[in-house]
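User: Here's a chain of 333 residues. Predict its fold as tokens.
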Amino acid sequence: MTITRPISDENMTVIDTDFSGIPVRLYLPKRRSEKWRPAVIFFHGGAFVMGSCKLQVYDFLNRLVANKLDAVVVGVDYRLAPQYHFPVPLEDSISAVKFFLQDKILTKYGVDSTRVCISGDSSGGTLAAQVAQVLKKDPEFKDKIKAQALIYPGLQLFDTLMPSHVENEHGPVLPRDMLIKLASLYVTKDQALPQAMWKNQYLPQENRYLLKFVNWSVFLPEKYKKNHVYIEPGTGELTAPYFRFIDQMSPLTANDFELQNLPLTYVLTCEHDILRDDGLIYVTRLRNAGVAVSHDHIEDGIHGALAFILSPFHLHVGLRIKDKYIRWLEENL
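Assistant: Prediction complete.
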């Protein structure tokens, strides 16, 4: 994975700077515009433990979005686990977004304050969903995000045996054992957690009321239930302090009232993806709450496909995902 430098060209000024101490990469179109530009704030994937907005594939994607939309694009380099456990990556993301959304900063970069989208892939999609929920509760920022775009996001840590987890236990890119290991590293180095997550028996009793929000037997479209039988995740004996964060790490556990005022939403899910059902359930719950949602499901898609769109892979399904994401932005931002 190649880290790129901020290389400007005839169409784009690219700058590495920081927002409230959080490293960001800015893409600023050079061509003159008679109107204020839209903006996209992008959070990269990498399971919270790896990656950067400066990786070649994300630099390519964000530069392309900036060119296609004539938009200001911000890539955020939040701090990573296991050196920085939750909630640090989320706090970094919120700080960077709030800094950018200041009127003086939007004016500085010529951004239309009514046309700002937050987006991300995989764990970046998790952060985008979390930031959208947090900002909706903040009177100063609740109306400053027009849209959110979530590409194969992970949205819950409550049930590790959803149908997509079972079907893709040994799937490409993100098999179940790797998902559990990386998700655990996001919150702790305690080896007891991944062992309990593997058994799907680790929720504290006081958090069990939240299971109703992630119950796949209720919210998953019939097509994806197949012959799976719902077994409620078990209660664990772990009492570690990191459990006080578990609902905050899972955007899918927001209640209906918290969901109903969320912005225009795009969700892309992939059939052969362990995180598929997180996205499918979120689409159902958002629509039930009255949120305008566009959903693309990629029947031949795999998790992390965007990471393989450049040479030597040129993965066709990844290129289609890229095109669908940009098309939605063009049509809705």
